[in-house]
Amino acid sequence: MAESNNFTCSGKLWKFLLFLSVVCIFLLLKFDGQKRKSFRGPEIKNVLYSSEGTEETRGKTSTKPSTKTTITAKETTTTQVAATTEITTLITPSTTPISSEKVTEETKCSPEQYILFLKTHKAGSSTMSNIFFRYGDSRDLSFVLGSDTLIGWPTRFRIGQALAFDGTRPNFLCSHTRFNKKAMNHLFPKDASKYVTIVRNPVKQFESAFNYMEIGRKFGFGTNPTEALKAFLKNGISFNDIRKSTLARNPQMFDLGLDFKFYQDAKAIKEYIEFLEKEFDLVLISDYFDESVVLMKRLLCWELDDVLYAKSNERLDKDKAPELSDDTKENIKRWNKADVLMYEHFNQTLWRRIEREGKDFYDDLTNFRRMKQELKTKCFSDKPSRQLIYGNKYAKGFTLKSDLPSDLQQKCGRMTRTENNYLAYLRNKRAAKLVGIYRAAPNEDDKEKVSWDAASDYKYVPVKKTR
Ligand SMILES: *[C@@H]1O[C@H](CO)[C@@H](O)[C@H](O)[C@H]1NC(C)=O
Asked: Which of 244, 270, 285, 324 is the most interior residue, by most CB within 10 Å?
């Protein structure tokens, strides 16, 4: 009798259905209020990490925003789990109070695994990239890679500059690129990725970039770092060709994509900083490195262990920054006004966000520093070492203790691997993965000679001439 379009149901059944509907409506209303506290739809996700986010919008949910882009199997599972949790909650009898455990379950976040890291120069970004390399490699996630250390830099990023993709959405981009909204947003959709960068006190960063890029020598101010810098800052330089002037003024804003023509334009700089504020979910400050990575860990829903680091690409003691006079410092600030304004802005937003994280942020920070120190003591000897970065550039290295158990040897070894070494390894890993894909779907640009005689299964054998 139970056909849905059969209207001969007994009165009892009708009453039962009516009762069931009332109960359902009651439950929906009751839990809607509960849900509002912890569950926010995809539109909230956009401002989840932005400074305008209210206390509520920063609530972490496990719900992934809907996106047109392909999602991995892993993600699908997370979404399904989240959906199941919700259904369970909805059918819980109303008399059972919601346990605090259940709410925590629902508000638990899931780790972010689509991250664009805009790698700035001389701001601790190699150490950051190393964190992303380790995280992604150990989970077999994919990276946007270039054929070189740089991906198109100093030109603005274009997708064609990267090595071909494997058909899935890339998880990380953390090589040197110059910010380019359109291409980057395409590859890393804003509503389903996190944008992270790191900046540094412009006085220190400029001095470091000036030194590293040998800007003084390039512009004919000699090779003594302190004297060249002083002479350079006496009048500054007039705009030269792009290649030469690239990091000679506002080097951080250059990487972040500000056009040269706006370097002296107050309104444009202000607007560009507002634009960056919208584009980036998190701007880290190199001068507060531990605070920065702990904040990142919390916002990406990672573990403290994931953000442990050993400083990469640090100058040798003999190349240490010279003491700068107050005048030189002031001139660096005046010459790099756009960088100064940008830095001041994001230094403030960093501390505001740390404040909003509450007291347990500092528990994390204390734990983190302890873990870092422990690992350092376990893994590295005090013997200083130097590491060839590229060409003739050396940086401080770490000496791994010789008798380490294999897990520590691996963990600490990866931490001290140079960027170029990591990139070469990741390129090989990618190539190995692509072999099958390329066999099935050859690249149309492949130059290799092709001939249909390569295989002989279907070698042409015409019909024997019989008539
Ligand atoms: C960054 O901001 C903090 C907090 O406002 C301030 O104490 C600190 O001096 C700032 N750092 C720099 C280098 O400007």
From this structure: 285
Asked if residue 65 has a cis previous peptide bond (ω within 30° of 0), the answer is no
Instruction: Please work out whether the CB of residue 201 comes within 6 Å of at least one atom of ligand 1.
Output: yes
Ligand 1 pocket test target in 288, 295, 351, 354 with most atoms within 8 Å of CB: 351
Q: Which residue is associated with the tokens 């994509």? A: 257
Task: State yes or no: pLDDT of 143 exceeds 80.
Answer: yes
| Strand pairing class (115-118; 194-199) | parallel
Average pLDDT score over residue span 173-202? 97
Flag whether pLDDT at 43 surpasses 60: no
Residues 6 or more apart in contact with residue 82 via CB below 8 angstroms: 62, 63, 64
d(CA 128, CA 117): 9
* CA torsion through residues 218, 222, 227, 230, sign: negative
| Residue that the structure tokens 């919390």 belong to | 298
Distance 119 CA to ligand 1 centre (A): 22
Say if residue 445's pLDDT is above 90.
Answer: no
Look-up of token digits 């054929």: 147
Output the CA 289–ligand 1 centroid distance in Å.
13
3-state SS assignment for residue 248 = coil
- State the Rg of the chain over Cα: 28
Tell me the pLDDT tens digit for each residue of 236-248.
988 877 777 889 9
Atom of ligand 1 nearest to the CA of 344: 14
